[in-house]
Write a structure and sequence with these properties.
The protein is an alpha/beta fold and 246 residues long. It is built from ten helices and eight strands. The chain has one domain: Alpha-Beta Barrel (TIM Barrel). The structure holds SN-glycerol-1-phosphate. This is Geranylgeranylglyceryl phosphate synthase.
């Protein structure tokens, strides 16, 4: 269980983690080597691979290609069962606990078992909490669930805590890919206070300032996808030194 252990060790030391999210639907195979070269030179510590709508087989081909170019752990962040591949190192075994669609709470997970038991993937049970961000995102559309309102702080906190009490190993606060508003720092810090497990935050983070404020508010691992897809120069911008005041 080295991936999870490394995350908890970093959390204990106050070292912040960054996952670059690669969507198999958007990444062209021929650009993987140059993109991953940038990732390798950046502050990124993990690579997440996944998307809400991905065709069969694409994920595995992409992971095989990424692996040729990096030593970073590759973790599946699947939108569906078909994205499971033994080529990755681990998988966020997600349950969309903000929603009330049984398919995404337990149905897909049951479907996934016959595949998962044939793999060596490190399986990391993760409570996935979708927060409203100003527009409808793919997660919302595909899962047919409502995100929790940003103003419903108590519900957000209780949802995250329920995930921890159910035995989940990570909580992922998600604004949705390309979100207009990233998760607000006060939401992150309120949730953080409830939890003893590591906290992941993602969705709509496009600047170094937004990244740092997520870290300062208590995110242990931040996920960024769109900002790197749009502009690879963002990798260099993140290298500039920051002092954390946590
Ligand atoms: C989406 O949290 C991730 O699941 C990343 O979002 O693409 O907006 O960075 P972005």
């Amino acid at each position: 269980h080295s991936i999870y252990q490394n995350i908890t060790t970093s959390k204990a030391k106050g070292e912040k983690l960054l996952a670059v999210l690669i969507d198999p639907d958007k990444m062209k195979l021929e650009t993987v080597s140059s993109f991953i070269a940038k990732v390798n030179q950046s502050i990124a510590t993990h690579i997440f691979v996944g998307g809400s709508e991905v065709d069969n087989g694409l994920t595995e081909t992409l992971v095989i290609e990424i692996k040729k170019h990096t030593e970073l752990p590759i973790i599946l962040f699947p939108g569906d069962v078909i994205q499971i591949t033994d080529e990755a190192n681990g998988i966020l075994f997600l349950s969309l606990i903000s929603g009330r669609n049984p398919d995404y709470l337990i149905g897909k997970q049951v479907e996934a078992v016959s595949k998962l038991t044939k793999t060596n993937l490190e399986i990391i049970p993760t409570g996935y909490v979708l927060i409203e961000n100003g527009k409808e995102t793919a997660v919302q559309r595909v899962s047919e669930t409502k995100p929790i309102k940003r103003s419903d702080i108590q519900i957000i906190k209780d949802t995250a805590k329920a995930g921890e009490l159910l035995g989940m190993k990570l909580i992922y606060l998600e604004a949705g890919s390309g979100a207009t508003h990233p998760i607000e720092p006060h939401i992150i810090s309120e949730v953080k206070r409830q939890l003893s497990i590591p906290l992941i935050v993602g969705g709509g983070i496009k600047t170094k300032i937004a990244l740092d404020s997520a870290y300062n508010a208590g995110a242990d691992l931040v996920v960024i996808g769109t900002a790197f897809e749009d502009d690879e120069a963002f990798f260099d911008e993140l290298k500039k030194q920051t002092v954390f005041n946590e």
